[in-house]
Amino acid sequence: MADDASVEDKTGVETPKPAPPHGDEGKAEPDWKAESRKWEQRAKENKAAADELESLKQSRMSEQEKLQARSEKLERELGSYKAKERQSQWKAQVSKDTGVPTDVLRGSTLEEIQAHAESLKTFLSKKPQAPIAFGVDRQPQNPAAGQGDWLRESFKRK
């Protein structure tokens, strides 16, 4: 006897039932613009809710906590300015020692700045040599002789 997954044809041979089609051929394609607008609207609502939550947190903070948070923010900012000032002092010192301009030096520590200055110094010390150009009075007598100058030879008068 044949099972439910197969069908018996006239010759007595069982053939499997065709499987239902895979994929979403029967479904209509979603409207992507509408979906995009829906998610954009949800994001705006979430942003508004997050802003409202932040304002509630701020209103619940005591005056002391607000001052402490402001103080911490200003201390971080001051630390950043001090680090930049320290780096500019190091760059000026390294520039004075090596002769490399301060505006091309990079690095956040004294060692990094010194290493960068040394690498630039070795790079800048290698100057390319230009070819020697003779003056008008020191030109070779017959530059085409033996050189096989085919263009000059082709214009010679006979």
Question: What does this protein look like?
Answer:
This protein has 158 residues and is mainly alpha-helical. A two-stranded antiparallel sheet has the order 1-2. Strand 1 and strand 2 form a beta hairpin. Helix 2 runs parallel beside helix 3. The protein is flat. The N and C termini lie far apart (110 Å). The model has no long low-confidence stretch (mean pLDDT 81). This is Helicase. GO terms for molecular function: helicase activity. Keywords: ATP-binding, Helicase, Hydrolase, Nucleotide-binding.
Short description:
With 158 residues, the protein is mainly α.
Cα end-to-end separation: 110 Å
Gyration radius over CA: 41 Å
- State the major sheet: 2 strands, antiparallel
Taking pLDDT < 50 over at least 5 consecutive residues as the criterion, the unreliable ranges are none
Number of helices: 4
- Topology order in helix (H) and strand (E) letters: EEHHHH
Mean pLDDT: 81
| Strand arrangement across the biggest beta sheet | 1-2
Helicity level, as a percent range? 40-55%
| Overall body shape | flat
Content of β-strand: under 5%
DSSP strand tally: 2
Structural class: mainly alpha
Protein name: Helicase
Region (Disordered): 1-103, 133-158
Biased composition (Basic and acidic residues): 22-88
Keywords: ATP-binding, Helicase, Hydrolase, Nucleotide-binding
